[in-house]
Design a protein that fits this description.
Layout lengths: L4 E11 L9 H9 L15 E6 L4 E6 L13 E4 L2 E4 L35 H5 L5 E11 H19 L1 H16 L1
Helix pairs in contact: 3-4
The structure holds iron/sulfur cluster (2 copies).
Length: 180
């Protein structure tokens, strides 16, 4: 099925792992900007960016939240960095049933980076004094229908798992934090 094409600006955050010093300012500001009302609290457990930390080896890896996935994948590879073994899941961006990252602590609903919609720039990029996070933008042509379909499928699977009311409450909280 082919729908009407439209230009869309795709924003991504380029991460330079070597520059990250593990200060976690990005986690704090992300949770604060998404609190309702905005800036009323900061709890890194609610952040849409998490730092995988291994302070003794001076390893810090920022990972920002990607899409919700209703089922866990089959990937179980291991990564060895400076002699320490990491599970593949550690660096995954998905909010997935097999782990706790990128879920709202109270409701369990998935969290996804929205590039700080409504702000002038992504706030994690702004507060990262080490320049480990850099905003990148590119233009892409996307099909409108596909976009809409993906949104509907995502909402449907969330409602199935968490119930319609929980999803509605979370959407209301999200729009509240954008207004304030
Ligand atoms: S603000 Fe920058 S340096 Fe600090 S933890 Fe986040 S990515 Fe790393
Ligand atoms: S761009 Fe905004 S929403 Fe995304 S991780 Fe950074 S602070 Fe959080």
């Amino acid at each position: 099925m082919s729908g009407e094409k439209k230009k869309k600006t795709i924003k991504t955050i380029k991460i330079d792992v070597d520059k990250c010093n593990g200060c976690r300012a990005c986690e704090v500001v992300c949770s604060s900007i998404h609190a309702a009302p905005k800036h009323s609290s900061n709890n890194p457990a609610r952040a849409r960016i998490r730092i995988i930390r291994e302070p003794l080896s001076d390893i810090y890896v920022p990972v920002y939240a990607g899409d919700y996935t209703p089922a866990e994948c089959a990937g179980r590879d291991k990564y060895t960095i400076d002699g320490k073994e990491y599970d593949e899941c550690a660096f995954c961006r998905a909010s997935c049933p097999s782990r706790e990252e990128f879920k709202e602590p109270d409701s369990g609903l998935p969290l996804k980076c929205d590039m700080c919609e409504g702000e002038e720039e992504p706030q994690c990029v702004k507060v990262c004094l080490a320049d480990a996070l850099v905003l990148e933008e590119r233009e892409e042509e996307v099909e409108e229908e596909v976009e809409q379909e993906e949104l509907e499928i995502g909402l449907e699977s969330l409602a199935k798992k968490h119930g319609v009311q929980k999803v509605k409450d979370a959407l209301a909280r999200m729009s509240e934090s954008k207004k304030s």
